[in-house]
Specification:
about 350 residues, single chain, two-stranded parallel ribbon, about 15% strand, 2 domains
């Protein structure tokens, strides 16, 4: 939804700038006609410039911040204010959520570190941290680019924002007995941020896309219904979460093989876990088993249509793994005709 709103904002701003120029051009045509009929001198036609010309400003000049930015200075100021407010607002909302969901327990006597590898849910949370770092950097980068920030600066500041945001979570975790500052989480966070940076710098790497799918497990449904007593919530419903790496085979296959592979089908490798909360009374915590999945995956970006808003929608949907047939490789070989 954030990307959609940014797309709408960019469309409105670009349309406004185009309308201004078009109006100026129409005015020029009318003035030229008047000149022919009355032999009066008219002022020079309005110009759109990059804003870096030397000398005094010309009458009728619409100054743009730089050649690659379609916004006027006033439009750019409004967009950047909106992007800044968005960063602050998202940070405030997520802090409020984490404070309520995570930081409401018993405080530790002192700040401490915790190496929480391979717990009951078999590192499924680390995939969540990695994907979180990736998408925080991705969304931040897109927002800054919409605000006409240069490519390298946008990449740097978006990655710095993602790193700072996830670092603050670990700092707060380090103050509560139940969690502690996890350097394992920090490694996962950094991996996700680095993946986005590498894909931005080396576009060929974008053929592999981190995607996500989720279904509510029986354990969570029974928790919400009061049938079992557990602290399970969607963010901890690891057995219902699957983290995928989806490959655009049309980009990876040699040219000779491309005609034999449908361009809208991706090949995905996923990680999930079996139940780590027993879903029936008396409920208990058990050690889950890793589920390694191989699946075909529909790629929304291959849908027809090229309007800017529609491209934004398709790109956003492409990070979701839609239900599809899947082959479960571990803990046992099993074919699921409709895996969610």
């Amino acid at each position: 939804m954030h990307r959609i709103r940014r797309g709408l904002l960019a469309l409105v701003v670009c349309s406004s700038a185009t309308a201004n120029v078009a109006t100026a051009q129409d005015s020029t045509v009318r003035d030229s006609t008047a000149k022919d009929s009355t032999a009066k001198v008219v002022p020079p036609a309005p110009l759109v410039t990059s804003g870096i010309e030397m000398g005094p400003p010309q009458s009728g000049v619409v100054s743009l911040p730089n050649e690659s930015c379609p916004l006027t200075s006033s439009q750019l100021a409004a967009v950047r204010a909106g992007v800044g407010a968005g960063f602050v607002g998202v940070n405030a909302y997520l802090y409020h959520y984490f404070k309520k969901a995570w930081w409401s327990g018993t405080r530790a006597k002192h700040f401490f570190f915790h190496a929480d590898w391979d717990q009951w849910f078999r590192d499924q949370d680390k995939f969540g941290h990695m994907f979180g770092g990736y998408h925080l950097a991705r969304i931040g980068y897109s927002a800054l680019r919409e605000a006409c920030v240069s490519d390298r600066k946008a990449l740097f500041w978006a990655t710095a924002y993602a790193a700072a945001f996830q670092l603050q979570i670990e700092i707060f975790d380090g103050q509560f007995q139940k969690y502690g500052f996890s350097y394992a989480d920090m490694i996962a966070n950094t991996t996700g941020q680095t993946l986005f940076v590498m894909q931005t710098l080396y576009p060929k790497l974008r053929a592999i896309k981190p995607t996500f799918s989720y279904h509510k497990t029986l354990a969570l449904r029974n928790t919400e219904a009061g049938i079992i007593d557990s602290e399970l919530r969607p963010s901890l419903d690891y057995s219902g979460q699957t983290y995928w790496f989806s490959a655009d085979m049309n980009e990876l296959l040699p040219d000779a093989a491309k005609p034999y592979w449908p361009s809208f089908i991706r090949l995905s490798l996923g990680h999930s876990v079996t139940d780590w909360i027993v879903p029936t009374p008396p409920s208990a915590t058990v050690r889950a088993k890793r589920k390694i999945m191989l699946s075909l995956d529909f790629d929304p970006e291959k849908l027809p249509g090229n309007l800017p808003l529609w491209r934004t929608i398709k790109h956003t949907l492409s990070y979701y793994h839609f239900p599809a047939p899947a082959l479960e490789l571990t803990p046992k070989l099993h074919l699921s005709p409709w895996y969610r």
